[in-house]
Amino acid sequence: MKKLTGAPLAILAIFVTWTLLDFVIHGLVLGRYYKALMPLIRPPQDMSLWLLNALMLLMDLVFVGLFYYLNERREKKQALVYGLVMGLLMGFVIGWGTWTVIPIPNYMAWVWFLGTWGEFLVAGGILALTLPKKPTT
Q: Which of 11, 18, 93, 118 sits at 20 to 30 Å (Cα–Cα) from 128?
């Protein structure tokens, strides 16, 4: 049996990590706040979990694929900086972008911002550990 390495390992590890972190962030930290927003958001039984997972996998594939495509040397520092920058970008859009159009509490916007930033920083760390350097010619 072939060992899972490189980009496929990074994609799998990031997907599992993001799933676990989303459970902590959205289930444990923000769960009670979501209940108060039920008029604005769907109740859990009406949410499409398969679609949420498909979108997370797509984001994972783009995250890993874009890093792999843009960074020939694939150094650990590059992966961490990439995760940091992508996390800031996505955190602002998800946390504060949502806050500008939906009346969510400031606390929720902060948690979405910081949680997203943290998830992408961790994903950058996973890239650093799993993507091999491209051989120099």
A: 93
